[in-house]
Amino acid sequence: QLQENQDEIENMMNAIFKGVFVHRYRDAIAEIRAICIEEIGIWMKMYSDAFLNDSYLKYVGWTMHDKQGEVRLKCLTALQGLYYNKELNSKLELFTSRFKDRIVSMTLDKEYDVAVQAIKLLTLVLQSSEEVLTAEDCENVYHLVYSAHRPVAVAAGEFLYKKLFSRRDPEDDGILKRRGRQSPNANLVKTLVFFFLESELHEHAAYLVDSMWDCATDLLKDWECMNSLLLEEPLNGEEPLTDRQESALIEIMLCTIRQAAECHPPVGRGTGKRVGSK
C-alpha cells in the first residue's frame, strides 16, 4: 500500500511537471520563468532521489542562457543550493561537465549580480572536486580580482584564496606557532607575490589586496612575516626573493597597511549595478 501511495504521488508530480513546468519555464514573462527555476531547485534539494537527475537538471542548464538577468540569477542560486550539499556531488557530475563552460562564461555576465553568483557557484564546484575546473577555467576567474566592481572582485578573491591559499601541509601543524620567515604564512606570501607578478597588472596591487581582504585578512596583516622575508637571510635550501619579487612584496605590503588604516576600497572600485561598455 505504501508503494502504491508513493507511485500515485510520483505520477501526480510527473503530471504537474509535464503539464505546468515544461510549458511555463519558457513563459513569455520573465518572472514566471524565474519562479519555475527557483521551484525546481527546491524540488531537487528536497527530493533528490526523484528530481536530481539530468532529465530535470537540463532545464536549469538551458535556462542559464535566458535573456533576462533575473532568470539567469535564479539558475545560479538554485545550483548553489545543490552544490553546497556535498552528498549530492556524485549526482551532479554529468551536469557539471556539460554546463561548466557556460557557468565560467557567466562570470563575465553583463549583470553584475549574475557574475558574482557565477563565481560563487564555481567556488562551490571547486570545493566539491578539484579536478573539474581546468587551469584555464580558473585563470578566467583569477583575473576578476582586478575588476572595478567590488562584489565581483571579492567573490573572485575568495575563489583565488580557496584554490591557491587555503591548502596546508599536515607538516605545517608543527610550525603553526613559528613566526616571521618560518611561519606557514611565508609560503603563502610568496605565492601572493608570484601571482601578482604573473598577472602583470603591476599598478593594481591595491585592487588585489582589496579583493582578498575579507577572506585572507590574517595573511595580509602578517607584516612580521613580510618584514622577515625582506630583511632576513633565506633559510637552508630556500630560494631568495629576486629584486623584482622584493619590490612587488613591498608594494603589496604598503597596500595592506593602507587598507588597514583607511578601511575603504581603492579609488576606482565601486558597487554599481550594471557593467559599462567594454
Automatic annotation (TrEMBL):
Give any GO molecular function from the UniProt entry.
chromatin binding
Endpoints of the signal sequence? none
Q: Which Pfam families match?
A: HEAT_SCC3-SA, SCD
Task: Tell me the ranges covered by the SCD domain, including all copies.
Answer: 21-106
GO annotation (BP), single: sister chromatid cohesion
Cellular component per GO, a single term: nucleus
Q: What is the top-level taxon of the source organism?
A: Eukaryota
Q: Which family does it belong to?
A: Belongs to the SCC3 family.
What is the protein name for this chain? STAG2 protein
Q: Which organism is it from?
A: Geococcyx californianus
